[in-house]
């Protein structure tokens, strides 16, 4: 108990799946959590089960709303220590099938959303003496998956951006760490929807089934570790959690 006691954390996309599990785990270990999601009803429902949690409607593509979410967090709790940039979506399409609209949607929610979150959280964290940013990528950033070209591109950008942000924060002496998680398949509504869409003969489905799905709590434990001071020497790195899906 108490591994993140006294820390104030924002988790995006916390109305479902991994984000909800992250928020619950951080709260269990003593953090004050601000849950945000574009789905206001869903994030309210999750937050209602976490004592002291705050739920905010929040589209991560909206820069003005990011400024409000950070300001609201500071006004309620007086500080910001942890940002988990988790919000995401996936639509299945290969490079030939993907529309430019859908390509830009993935980029806006995941790449731009993560950029905006870091941009607005860093000054608040620096003001409080430091913090930890956890960005959510995917094994799709590191291995070729033909059926999710836009998702892969956005996640790859998050991996590269996270390193740049980590170096910047260190150069500035902010005491802010920035790391990126690279999960394989975990049992969430996103994965269930993906499995339902994929044809049985698909390579993607075979890869997921072959390695078994993790539980959201598996990712949440890693988020907790990166949020806590136990990981104070870890920044600018990517941590893979995929039950061996991408091991050489
Ligand atoms: P999920 O679909 O269960 O939850 C995603 C949440 O993000 C939803 O609540 C949704 O409303 C929210 N969201 C979508 N667009 C948003 C926006 N514009 N602004 C704010 N919130 C928005 O998915 P999940 O499986 O929990 O995935 C969470 C993150 O983990 C995503 O970034 C996903 O790409 C990543 N990931 C998941 C897996 C997995 O196997 N589940 C594997 C690798 C990476």
Q: Explain this structure to me?
A:
The protein has 248 residues and is α/β, with parallel strands linked by helices. The chain has one domain: 3-Layer(aba) Sandwich (Rossmann fold). Helix content is 48%, strand content 15%. The protein is built from 8 helices and 7 strands, in the order E-H-E-H-E-H-E-H-E-H-E-H-H-H-E. The chain has a 7-stranded parallel beta sheet, sandwiched between helices. Helix 5 links the parallel strand 5 and strand 6. Helix 1 (17-28) packs across helix 8 (216-227). The longest helix has 28 residues, at 100-127. The chain is globular. Nicotinamide-adenine-dinucleotide binds at residues 12-13, 15-19, 37-39, 42, 58-61, 86-89, 109, 136, 138, 183, 185-186, 188-191.
Bound molecules: nicotinamide-adenine-dinucleotide
The CATH class, by name, is: Alpha Beta
Widest beta sheet: strand line-up: 3-2-1-4-5-6-7
Q: What's the multimeric state?
A: single chain
Q: Structural class from helices and strands? A: alpha/beta
Strand elements, count: 7
Q: What is the end-to-end distance?
A: 36 Å
CATH fold title: Rossmann fold
Major sheet attributes: 7 strands, parallel
Radius of gyration, Cα only, in angstroms?
17 Å
SSE diagram, text form:
Blueprint: E1 8-12, H1 17-28, E2 32-37, H2 40-48, E3 54-57, H3 63-77, E4 82-85, H4 100-127, E5 131-136, H5 149-172, E6 176-183, H6 189-197, H7 203-211, H8 216-227, E7 238-241
Helix pairs in contact: 1-8, 3-4, 4-5
The structure holds nicotinamide-adenine-dinucleotide (NAD).
């Amino acid at each position: 108990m108490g591994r993140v006691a006294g820390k104030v954390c924002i988790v995006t996309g916390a109305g479902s799946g991994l984000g909800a599990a992250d928020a619950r785990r951080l709260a269990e270990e003593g953090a004050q959590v601000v849950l945000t999601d574009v789905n206001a009803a869903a994030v309210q429902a999750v937050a209602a089960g976490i004592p002291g949690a705050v739920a905010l409607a929040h589209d991560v593509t909206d820069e003005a709303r990011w400024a409000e979410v950070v300001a609201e967090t500071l006004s309620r709790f007086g500080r910001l220590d942890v940002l988990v940039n988790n919000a995401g979506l996936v639509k299945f399409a290969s490079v030939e099938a993907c529309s430019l609209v859908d390509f830009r949607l993935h980029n806006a929610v995941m790449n731009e959303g993560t950029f905006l979150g870091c941009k607005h959280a860093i000054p608040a964290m620096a003001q409080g003496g430091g913090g930890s940013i956890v960005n959510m990528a995917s094994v799709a950033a590191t291995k070729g998956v033909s059926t999710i070209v836009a998702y892969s591109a956005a996640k790859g950008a998050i991996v590269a951006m996270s390193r740049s942000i980590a170096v910047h924060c260190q150069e500035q002496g902010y005491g802010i760490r920035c790391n990126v998680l690279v999960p394989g398949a975990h049992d969430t509504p996103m994965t269930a929807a993906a499995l339902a869409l994929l044809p049985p003969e698909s390579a993607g489905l075979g890869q997921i089934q072959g390695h078994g799905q993790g539980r959201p709590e598996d990712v949440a434990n890693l988020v907790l570790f990166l949020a806590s001071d136990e990981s104070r020497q870890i920044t600018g790195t990517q941590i893979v959690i995929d039950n061996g899906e991408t091991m050489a």
